[in-house]
Please model this.
Amino acid sequence: MSGQANYARPVTAHGTDRPLPLSVDRTSPVPLYFQLAQQLEAAVEQGRLAPGALLGNEIDLASRLGLSRPTVRQAIQTLVDKGLMVRRRGVGTQVVHSQVRRPLELSSLYDDLETAGQRPATAVLRNTTEPATAEVAAALGVAEGSEVHLVERLRSAHGEPMALLRNHLPPGLVPLRIDELEATGLYRLMRAAGITLHSARQTVGARAATVGEARDLDEEPGAPLLTMERVTYDDTGRVVEFGSHVYRAARYAFEFQLLVRP
Amino acid sequence: MSGQANYARPVTAHGTDRPLPLSVDRTSPVPLYFQLAQQLEAAVEQGRLAPGALLGNEIDLASRLGLSRPTVRQAIQTLVDKGLMVRRRGVGTQVVHSQVRRPLELSSLYDDLETAGQRPATAVLRNTTEPATAEVAAALGVAEGSEVHLVERLRSAHGEPMALLRNHLPPGLVPLRIDELEATGLYRLMRAAGITLHSARQTVGARAATVGEARDLDEEPGAPLLTMERVTYDDTGRVVEFGSHVYRAARYAFEFQLLVRP
DNA sequence: GCCATGGCTATGTCCGGACAAGCGAACTAC
DNA sequence: GTAGTTCGCTTGTCCGGACATAGCCATGGC
Model:
């Protein structure tokens, strides 16, 4: 009702409030749109851009930064894709209003545990080659009975077993040494070997523990286990891994963020 | 070898092979980039664009269609985002080489069953309001003890129970009639009420069935169940639903596609 | 036979402009 | 007072161009 601004006033980007300190470095090899996107994302995460806050229109933002509108749009678009912001024609772009975390990424149990502050330990139970069963052959796209690599690991945290990990790999794709497998995760080893992971198809379910699984995981036979099967592809579409994992239900759950595709 | 084309030859978009029939309708209100993206996606799905096939460079494609390069790029970008294609600088854009399906969407069990050809049946066990427990209040962002809407449903397929669905909603958000709840899914009712779903935070785990769950689901007490908890947000960031679902482990699993965010 | 180099190609980034369309608020007519 | 209309705002779409840069091949020197 102040009479001067009838339209929604951007809370931060310009206006009477303290403007956001945004700037780009044209000598940097980092793309301009990426620099801007990073700064905006940091502002959202640190609360300097409050949920619901309007970003201010793209034209002003562009001229303020000495950029063109397409570049600013490209920056904002990456944040919209991440679910951090919403655009509304005729209204503006605003910070999404909820405790949104990251969308689900192709995650590794090792990394998950490490970021959670737990120090994961890995025991390699098997690291050999064996003839592919029908299921494994179909997943890896090789002939049934041909030799494939098998890695079986028991992962623990805080001294308690958490998961039993069985992974099948095409032969000769990555050399896997036991000491490396015990020191880090499989995905890191694959990336270090020059493989660019691209996508994965996962199935998550549940079932009762077998006697062998119960022994390894320190559970009772028949106890509920969380299961995950995953086929991972690299950027050329090759299958690089087929994993069958079981997790102790009391100690692990999958948590992730979904976005509605407009 | 042939002496005329030293560079990788696009298999379909131009060259000696039959070119893809692509065209855009400038009188249509559908955006041009979207028309092109749809046609390319259809060509991939029908196999007219084989996996690994190069798309041909963007400049030619643009001039052939009478479009500008940014528009063509925008079309291709949507397919790259979906994981159907991969760009390589200096090489070109090629169709991804695997049986990639859709990425995980904010899915409804009802829709999942329906598309799988099973005819889901729903029995509404409860449809009332009740005071929010601490857990529900935290999820919905309301005061503990305040009245919230509760819907409890048993979903079956082929005459067998599949899942027990408990959903809490903010009061007064959507009017829910029992006959509607038994005829369709909750998400459809919410969309029909003008709510634009935006994102959800899910946790998937497993546990043993309680006595009551076992009775409803026709399982033994202690049988493994797949559990899913979900908080759903609309595009303004409001929480619109908190769901606690349990599925019979033998009859249901979550299956989804993950993409690595570059 | 091997390696360095240069040139070609295709995507990556960026610009400045233009018009269309959805949205909301204020205004006007009843 | 209420309903319809107008108007200004903002994003959505599209264009044509420009230069940078990564990848690959062929050439030429060793």
Notes: The mean pLDDT of chain A is 82. The first helix of chain A runs from residue 32 to 45. Residues 6-7, 57-59, 73, 87-93 of chain A lie near DNA strand D (CB under 10 Å from a C1').
